[in-house]
Amino acid sequence: MGATAGIVVIGDEILSGKFGDENARFLIAELRSLGVELRRISVIPDDLDDIADTVPRFARRFDHVFTSGGVGPTHDDLTMEGIARGFGTRVVRVPELEARVRAYWGDKLAPANLRLAEVPAGAQLLYGDPVWPVVAYQNVYILPGVPGLFRRKFQDIRERFRAAPLVLARLYARGDEGVLAPHLDAVVAAHPGAKLGSYPRFEEQDFRVLVTVEGVDPAAVGAAVDDLAARLGELVVRVEPAA
Amino acid sequence: MGATAGIVVIGDEILSGKFGDENARFLIAELRSLGVELRRISVIPDDLDDIADTVPRFARRFDHVFTSGGVGPTHDDLTMEGIARGFGTRVVRVPELEARVRAYWGDKLAPANLRLAEVPAGAQLLYGDPVWPVVAYQNVYILPGVPGLFRRKFQDIRERFRAAPLVLARLYARGDEGVLAPHLDAVVAAHPGAKLGSYPRFEEQDFRVLVTVEGVDPAAVGAAVDDLAARLGELVVRVEPAA
Predict the structure, then answer these.
(1) Are residues B37 and B152 in the same domain?
(2) Does the CB of A108 have a partner CB in chain B at under 8 Å?
(3) Does B190 touch chain A (CB under 8 A)?
(4) pLDDT band of B221, cuts 50, 70, 90
(5) Positive or negative CA dihedral for B150, B152, B157, B159?
(6) What residue numbers bound the domain in which B38 lies?
(7) Is B112 within 8 Å of A17 when comparing Cβ atoms?
(8) pLDDT by residue (tens digit) across B145-188?
(9) What is the arithmetic mean of pLDDT over A10-31?
């Protein structure tokens, strides 16, 4: 596989059910289409220690890390400070951002708005949108929690992450997962270039198990699907070819 | 606050976008209505080491841990083994479960189905449904990934987790978050029994910021809302009383 990624959603409002998550869901689909392997999503509270502990851990394990939320001007916006603390640095006010904040709010500027100009020392500013950059610290991309803004800012930087696309095939089978299991084991062993998933479903009319086969090499995926279909014989309901 | 909880969703299929998460979303609402404070959700791959590392870590930090997925008979069902490894024990076949598996499948039994009778040594079997128990290891409740089954099994055990309900009030305000920030800070400092969240919205007609106020003590929540409303004066659009 190619590049890996992790997502840290920072927000009491998700954990307490006040808002449903939209940002991780959006990013799952985006990363998939970019060919990046998403390896972990964690939803954590607006808590300084938890942010400081979680984000650097993700940054060591994955190629790219995306955070959502906690970047506004109020008491519960702790992401910048948490990330700074986690990486052993501090938050600094950046003149380039301060100028943009002052220009945007003009004489309506409240002191708290200047928190939007504060980032971990050493952070990079990535301009897609010409006015408001995305703040990145090392391999951590710090995105806002408001879904519309989250999406827009990710769009500004998405092409940096493009990797080899994944190929996916689906095989729908009748029969119990227990009957399929030894055949799946055999195909997994014989086709290291393909990754298999097995998902039983009890509410479908025409199949009992969806088997997914995926990988970066279309030939390897095709060979694994053919092998599995041959082994399962009349248990196969249909195969949806690699997209 | 009362009892805390964490959720570990185990499933490549969520991370790769083949299925959307339904189980964490369901459990967020259930835990909320039970008065349990959800502190973390992690979505991790079908990976033995990751399961073994993640689940015991959750079990140490939270009162209750719920896992979703990875409990079937196929090669990608690694939850029981991962949890056993993480807690330094091993998987054993339980005669009580083996009898149920054999009775259910009868002469259609495939050897792989017997994996459903294997649990970490020392696990408890919790009967809500009279036939298929929920498997628990210490404070970890091991639930299946198929959404219909996940919900049914959680319903079987949900009353064990009932705690003090939370009270929530919402204050909708016009005006910029930066203007609200010092008032929120003051209310947070003066009302330790209430937890405030501030959520800007840019697509609403009549308000710019939703402030949530919550806690276990209705009087403390009410006092905090009244204090905030008095401070904000005409910036208040409306208050939705504590439910």
Answers:
(1) yes
(2) yes
(3) no
(4) very high
(5) positive
(6) 4-161
(7) no
(8) 999 999 999 999 999 999 888 889 999 999 899 999 999 999 99
(9) 96
Nearest one of B163, B166, B153 to B126, comparing CA atoms:
B153
Give the containing element (helix H, strand E) for B141.
strand B140-143
Q: Which residues of A touch B16 (CB under 8 A)?
A: 28, 32, 37-38, 166, 214
**CATH code (residue A229):** 3.30.70.2860
The last residue of one of the domains, among A139, A161, A183, is: A161
State whether residue B19 sits within 8 Å of chain A by CB.
yes
pLDDT tens, position by position, A66-102: 999 999 999 999 999 999 999 999 999 999 999 999 9
Torsion of CA A147, A149, A154, A157, to 10 degrees: 180
- Looking at the structure, do residues A79 and A175 belong to the same domain, yes or no? no
Residue B242 has pLDDT above 70, yes or no: no
> Does B27 touch chain A if contact means CB atoms closer than 8 Å?
no
Q: What is the pLDDT of residues B63-83, one digit of tens each?
A: 999 999 999 999 999 999 999
- CATH no. for residue A132? 3.40.980.10
The interface pTM score, or ipTM, of the predicted complex is 0.90
Give the tokens for residue A233.
């014989």
Which one of B161, B192, B222 terminates a domain?
B161
Amino acid identity at B212: T
**Total structural domains in chain B?**
2
pLDDT score, position B201: 87
Among A14, A32, A176, beta carbon nearest to B17? A32
If asked whether residues B177 and B153 sit together in one domain, one would say no
pTM, to two decimals: 0.91
Report the run of H or E that residue B92 belongs to, with start and end.
Answer: strand B91-93
B64 and B126 belong to one structural domain: yes
Q: Residue A1: which pLDDT band, with cuts at 50, 70 and 90?
A: low
A205: closest CA among A174, A171, A239? A174
